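Key idea: predict the complex, not the pieces.
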Amino acid sequence: MRVGVYPGSFDPVTNGHIDIISRAARIVDKLIVAVALNAGKNPLFQLAERTAMVTEDVKLLADKGASIEIMSFNGLLIDFADQVGASVIIRGLRAVSDFEYEFQMAAMNARLNPKAETAFLMASDRNHFISSRFVKEIGALGGDISHFVSPNVAAKLRARFSDAGE
Ligand code: ADP
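Result:
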């Protein structure tokens, strides 16, 4: 059985992430979406909130392909991949600007754990430009984020920014 891990911060999960998840689920037998603690990145949402949002969005996927599990992790990705028996690490590519960072990370991970291959998937035209960072920036300024995230995530973002404004 081929197990894949799709790691990320998912702060918050966007339609771009969901696009990659649905695509990745078609090429592995089991996909583990791994939500990273990433405390150093100073996330807007707590780990439990980010994990819950991914879980809610994945439930809405009509065609799940493989079985999809949502987990959180802290520490080195390759250690986590080892623990869950994953042989494939999935990453998404948006623009050329992602390439340098992703290329270096894949090379380092390959050196640390040669058993796991990194596979890159591209989001579809409609979703490839979406990033959690811009969704947060637009949301913070009161812009319309409904094209980029699910209604559940949009509501969570609105609540977070209205709390911050009070
Ligand atoms: P990280 O902090 O690990 O970069 P992110 O949640 O920002 O976590 O992204 C997780 C993965 O999803 C990364 O490989 C990123 O390039 C990819 N990704 C994010 N948004 C998109 C998108 N719109 N299209 C394709 N890939 C994406």
